[in-house]
Design goal:
There is one protein chain. 25% of the residues lie in helices and 22% in strands. The chain has 7 helices and 10 strands. The strands form 3 sheets. It has a 4-stranded antiparallel beta sheet with strand order 1-6-7-5, with helices on one face. The chain is elongated. Residues 283-291 have low confidence and may be disordered. The protein binds a DNA duplex (16 and 16 nucleotides) through residues 1-3, 32, 57, 81-85, 100, 117-123, 158-161, 164, 167, 169, 176-177, 225-226, 265-268.
DNA sequence: AGCTCTTCCTGAAAGC
DNA sequence: TGCTTTCAGGAAGAGC
């Protein structure tokens, strides 16, 4: 599923071929995941693409309005979240259309930017430049930019499980289930540990592990475990390097113990019980029946 | 306030 | 074999 490395790979692909193009038209299929579908058709045709950037797991396409709205409108950001099964690809308008393709942006070079999403957990919205600051403020820090000091500040005061905090987009933006589990394994921290009980050494290890895992995953163009493909339709390769994610019952690469899966923060969490020791639980007094 | 659980959706895979 | 059930997950919203 698309997390930071996958979204970064898509963004790099789009950045290579979209800037300078003009959106000619917008065609919509199902729209229940689009904040304001009417606005897409009204505001996008005629607009020119300036650039493509990533904000956490969001793709931001920077546009200059050029259509009927150009005399009033400021710059605009087309924001796309891929959810779980979303795919954003450029194709020739004449290419066959895969099922569950719900949005088509016709371009001035004979191609289309297409959004396909089986489960429609994704999201599409338009944000005017004047409000992009507000949008950005609700997101946490970029995991590849945050300093150790700031990282510790965001974790060491919290009573939630470390896994829940890694997934919280208001703390770090871009980490999802795969990279949370892989980072925790690398840092040798159990996903159910309470964040404020982690030592400085453990937090430092986690900070560095998140960076290492994400950087490596970007280099391998993301993890393709189900539907993920990049903007050219190619799969990633980081799934071949997964140490715990979806490896339940298989031997730990470090100690051979069987990888386990438990639910933490409502999410499947994969870990090695030997390398990532469980948090100490106050033993419940067990009353022994004496008679 | 802070944290966890539930809900949305579909198709693949497991279960019977 | 074929039908039914379960499971996956991002993030909003409900619940505790």
């Amino acid at each position: 599923m698309p997390e930071l490395p996958e979204v970064e790979t898509v963004v790099r692909g789009l950045r290579a071929s979209l800037p300078g193009r003009t959106i000619l038209d917008v065609r919509l299929g199902r729209t229940d995941f689009i904040d304001d579908p009417v606005a897409l058709g009204e505001q996008l045709p005629g607009s020119r693409i300036l650039g493509v950037t990533r904000l956490g797991k969001f793709i931001a396409i920077d546009l200059v309005p050029g259509g009927t709205a150009s005399h009033t409108s400021e710059r605009l950001f087309l924001i796309i979240h891929l959810g779980m099964t979303g795919q954003l690809m450029t194709r020739l308008a004449s290419d066959p259309v895969p099922p569950h393709t719900h949005v088509f942006f016709g371009l001035d070079d004979g191609r289309e930017l297409r959004y396909t999403d089986v489960r429609r957990f994704g999201r599409i919205l338009l944000v005017p430049e004047s409000k992009i600051g507000m949008f950005r403020e609700r997101l946490g820090a970029e995991p590849l930019e945050i300093t150790l000091k700031e990282f510790c500040a965001r974790f060491s005061s919290r009573g939630a499980r470390v896994k829940a905090l890694l997934l919280d987009q208001g703390i770090l933006r871009g980490v999802g289930n795969i990279y949370a589990d892989e980072s925790l394994f690398r840092a040798r921290i159990h996903p159910a540990r309470i964040a404020r009980k982690l030592t400085q050494t453990q937090l430092a290890r986690l900070h560095q592990s998140v960076r290492t895992i994400l950087t490596t995953a970007i280099r391998l163009r993301g993890s393709s475990v189900s539907d993920y493909v990049d903007s050219d339709g190619n799969r990633g390769e980081f799934q071949l390097r997964h140490r715990v994610y979806q490896r339940e019952g298989k031997p730990c690469v470090r100690c051979r113990e069987k990888i386990r899966r438990v639910i933490v923060a409502g999410r499947s969490s994969h870990f090695c019980p030997r390398c990532q020791p469980a948090p100490r639980v106050r033993k419940v007094q067990r009353r022994v029946n004496k008679s």
